[in-house]
Amino acid sequence: MSATPMSLTQSARKGRRELKNVVATTLIVSSFVVALIPLTLIVVYVFQRGASILSWSFLTEDLPFSNRREGGGIYPAIIGTLVITGAATAMAVPLGILGGIYLNEYGGPGVFARIVRFLADVMTGVPSIVMGLFIYTIWVLPRKQSGLSGFAGALALGCLMLPIVIRTTEEILKLVPDELREGSYALGTRKAQTIRRVVFPSAAPGIISGALLGIARVAGETAPLLFTIGVVSVANFNVFEGANTALPPQIYTNANTFGGFDAAQDRAWGMALALILIVFLFTLIARIFTTIYTRRSTAV
Amino acid sequence: MTDTATATTRFGAVATTQAQTATPEPDEAPPRERSPDEEPERARELVFNLSDVEIAYSGVTAVTGVNLDIAANEISAFIGPSGCGKTTVLRSLNRMHDITPGAEVRGSITYHGEDLYASKVDPAEVRRRIGMVFQKPNPFPKSVYDNVAYGPRINGAKRSEISDIVEKALTQAALWDEVDGKLRKSALALSGGQQQRLCIARCLAVEPDVILMDEPCSALDPIATARIEDLMDELKNVYTIVIVTHNMQQAARVSDRTAFFTAEVDDNGQRHGRLIEYDVTETMFTHPSDPRTEGYITGRFG
Lengths: 300, 302
What we know:
- The complex is a heterodimer.
- By secondary structure, chain A is an all-alpha fold.
- Chain A has one domain (56-298): MetI-like fold, CATH 1.10.3720.10.
- Chain A is built from eleven helices and no strands.
- The longest helix of chain A is centred in the first third of the chain and has 38 residues, at 14-51.
- The radius of gyration of chain A is 25 Å and the shape is globular.
- The mean pLDDT of chain A is 88.
- Chain B is α/β, with parallel strands linked by helices.
- Chain B has a single domain, classed as P-loop containing nucleotide triphosphate hydrolases (Rossmann fold), CATH 3.40.50.300.
- In chain B, strands 5-4-1-2-10-9-3-8-7-6 form a ten-stranded mixed beta sheet, with helices on both faces.
- The longest helix of chain B is centred in the first third of the chain and has 19 residues, at 2-20.
- The interface between A and B is medium-sized, with 24 and 31 residues.
């Protein structure tokens, strides 16, 4: 056998391979662009319409008594969104994380864990308005007028968040290598200590991201708040007492005020922009937080 | 020398008889040996006694017919081809199988004469006394210091003692000079060999009685391997070491006693691991009594 001279620059079936490469690359890039178009359009349009109305007084003044009036601000709605989402987070995130830990570390393939997992999956698919109706029926109605409060809204949002947090926590914990668990057990530690000091810290950045996804998801929810928090035109910092308001339902009612009431339309755009910025800010803060946390625990 | 010679015949006998019948041999020695003061003439203080041990995963037997004694301050090596159950046996010594769903250990394993699998035995306490170093270095994603301090902290060491414990453990593991001044850096930034020595230091920090090593050098280069082997030689003055290795030369270099396992297919077509021979390392490598051991050692199979 004589040695065939080989060329390093020309491999077999070069043309076909290159063609495939070009086609695949084009497809991937173009789908990325297509996916980006609606996103950019929304952000750009909301900025265009909302930026002109956004001002310090718009952010700090009380809501106008009627949507049909001009002027006024959105301060009560911002406060409402913050306290209601905050209360929902305070209830759903710890519970969800504990639930996720149970599913992955204790329940495993057991029957009870399988049932919980299934129910969490079903709960993720429940439309948010159903969650609102549910809280309206079991919490608001028995208390009549005093039932309308930020807390009732937070309950509804919490129910929406809970399954998201449970399932993401479980998925993240699955990624923690068993070698770490074994390494900890081999030092004579108990299960709870291993989870608390090795498993959870390793998974924390991912779990925080999961919780954040949940928060971002519910911060913009309208339906669960429509019949649970009532209406108010001054800021109410108390989640537990008195009616409250929030950005999404305010956007809904203002945008719904038709017939020459441009002020209401503008207000809706301004609030939409404010809401996007708030969610963006949340995400940013959490990202910075997780980056610092990850860097500290795996720093070189 | 005489001591070793008597022990040799005893264990040679155990290894051969075990294949035929369960003889009274294994019962004879262990229970009376708890206190070395009572019988000062006995040089070998038994740490583990395994008799008729069989381990199954989800009902499928992985290894069976294991009878062996492991003595204090010796290095015992488990060798054999892949899938022969050496790691499985090793993990039964500190009840690591408790956390594997479906794993079941039958037969008797005693530790200093006490039944390791008695219902009142606390597996966490067992593992505190019988540490383990794994095949793949598995430092926690924490700093070097926190990795070593982890065990003592969990076991309630005082804050003031911990830094001394950490320094001592890292020195014992021959890592102190390399990480001094880098204690607050992440353990994941260390090289593979350093990470494995860190895992050894982490194990030493809880002051165990026995160290089980599951192919501790398989992911390391020859230089790092040599360091860890030297380390084992020093550690055996204080600790009892059991090591699983794929590397026969390593077993020959470091161990006092060697157990040879192999996998065999039984009448029902099931593949089980089995202990073939357990003897003083030198004898195992020069005059193995079983042809299968000889075949493996000389490279005829495996």
